[in-house]
């Protein structure tokens, strides 16, 4: 090695360090002392340790995620009566996480078989891709029969949306995505990071705590032709408010008329009504009209596979050739993101959906989960109406569907829920009914009434 | 605009098609061309499609045993049993499994690293090596938007894709010396010196992919020193820790040298090869910061990048890694198995070289045993590789990279013969 010369670190010199020992933090200071005290001498290199300034000094703390941050706050709360209605993860009546029986069975099968852990192809497990598309569109759907769907396994709903967003950016650089107001918070992040411009369409009507259908149609109509319309296939997140079949038909008419491209986010198939087929009806309606469309799927909730990150992006095309080309380009986007998707969750889904017995068992478990949510809705409605002496109409709780309910509480009221009642929810007034037990409905009703009337 | 006109026409076509119940070929995706096949993964596809009984796959870098079969390590099987069926599958924190991250950092930075004790390392679980590199590239773009990345020639092809999709401009630096089939150290050092101060460099920590050519310890020290002079940022891609020499500590030597010299490195780790967890996508991205406060801030920003990409990482592989590394017995077993894999590869290197030499080749084949890790840069040209495939059903990437993991006592003779055939003077 060359002999010692004055090192230029380009950022700060030893002299600067001596003037400002605070600048570099306690660890650097400690090193400075070590240098003098313990006699270990790496010469100028040791000195350089003391003055090394990170390239990322200007990096500020990111804000906590509005949804996932709620669970963190909940965990830190020491109150006995605390209730976590934040993230949409299903809980049993005992408020325990739930691993579906079919999943345990599938995993045991997999364990016995001792399958290897080789890389999946970029597009994922073929067996999974087949069953997921069939589950969504129906095995006898023309789009499946004619090979017109490009399906790529991806990292749950988020990963599927991101692949599609990157594809849109690349092939439709002039297009905008229209997102419902409100929508799942991460939708905007996904399109932002993929550099796809977006705008909102009216959706939630606070006066009715229901759908602003007129506003929705107006905004979709006003958008430039060829926009992507992000739709929640069922169990809208965060409101729980879904269009009726008649309303879906009108939406489809308008989208066709404007040459828009429907982009469905299906995160709760089976979880909304309890029926897999019924919950897919909006998607199937659109597909049966011959429309080309995107569908992002997730198995986080309906198979309880949250942390396995299993989902798929499906692109319906007008021809098998187009589907093949689209699939190849989706793969090209995935490769520099994560190379190929994780295998474990895919195998579970393929095993459950591909085996008639397990599939039936799954349908039953799903009905139970969706049923529990419906029961909880009913109990909460009853408790609210009772405590409120039937002053306010709380029936929106019954009309909304799926895991979430938009309570209509504003930010201050939601804060009151947390600060006074130790009820954790997101600031937009969303509660996750999946985290509510029958036993706690009464307490929750009290909290809601208190927040609604006492706080403005 | 032409495109919206087109859409109008296409839309009409589609409406007509829908009404008439006949599928017109008009589509939104008319302008979407078929993507070129991935050069590496495409090789395996071609191999699988080949009916020849003699076929040999030395393409993708996935370890095979001496029978050419994929291997699930014993330590992994044991870990699988322990975690099967009983756990809940709740979302991991956005940054991934804390336990897995802890263990990964110990492996890379040293069990007793002060840096870990001082909490100076911002680290998140990532989607194997690819995911770790991509998170870093996106982070680099977001917080140092004017920076570029210097990438060695050659490198794993996907490195270029990753930094390109992250919109970080790329430069290259000399690395491989075709004449010696070794390291072009002089040119490498020149490139380091000539790069603007504070440049970002991508370094392979050990077992360079695709060449198998690693700097010596002395050379690493010189590189580190020059990096200090130039205030460059070293980003290490470590996909083969343990796989190169058989000893994970030894394979981390380059990183440790840089750490001793005070560099604040970035590091992508993968457990795909060394634990055989390929399809589980288990990896870790770490960035060494000045202090704990900064590390917390950097980690929070890495999570911000991950959230709109996949929300949180997959749990299964992470569990396997943490169970194995945190249990002394399993960890010992793992160390043995990793050594076994590395030794088999080293044995095959020796055998391949010997076989070719015994056939009377008058070319030099010492690079086969000089190079290290899973890959051997044979020096074969694309045309020669094509001959290997077409005439001998031997599958590899056209840059002449041989995955030694695909070589067995059963096929080494056949492979040697084929290589000799295509490389001997005509």
From TrEMBL, chain A:
Residues 82-448 form the Aminotransferase class I/classII large domain. GO terms for molecular function: L-aspartate:2-oxoglutarate aminotransferase activity. It catalyses: L-aspartate + 2-oxoglutarate = oxaloacetate + L-glutamate. Its EC number is 2.6.1.1. Residues 1-12 have a biased composition (Polar residues). Its cofactor is pyridoxal 5'-phosphate. Residues 1-30 are annotated as: Disordered. It is an enzyme of class 2 (transferase). The keyword Transferase applies. Signal peptide: none annotated. Keywords: Aminotransferase, Pyridoxal phosphate, Transferase. Belongs to the class-I pyridoxal-phosphate-dependent aminotransferase family. PANTHER family: ASPARTATE AMINOTRANSFERASE (PTHR11879), ASPARTATE AMINOTRANSFERASE, CYTOPLASMIC (PTHR11879:SF46). Homodimer. This is aspartate transaminase.
TrEMBL record, chain B:
It catalyses: L-aspartate + 2-oxoglutarate = oxaloacetate + L-glutamate. One of its GO terms (molecular function) is L-aspartate:2-oxoglutarate aminotransferase activity. Pfam families: Aminotran_1_2 (PF00155). The keyword Transferase applies. Keywords: Aminotransferase, Pyridoxal phosphate, Transferase. InterPro entries: Aminotransferase_I/II_large, Asp_trans, NHTrfase_class1_PyrdxlP-BS, PyrdxlP-dep_Trfase, PyrdxlP-dep_Trfase_major, PyrdxlP-dep_Trfase_small. Its EC number is 2.6.1.1. It is an enzyme of class 2 (transferase). Residues 54-419 form the Aminotransferase class I/classII large domain. Gene3D superfamilies: Aspartate Aminotransferase, domain 1, Type I PLP-dependent aspartate aminotransferase-like (Major domain). CDD domains: AAT_like. In eukaryotes there are cytoplasmic, mitochondrial and chloroplastic isozymes. Homodimer. This is Aspartate aminotransferase. It comes from Dendrobium thyrsiflorum (Pinecone-like raceme dendrobium).
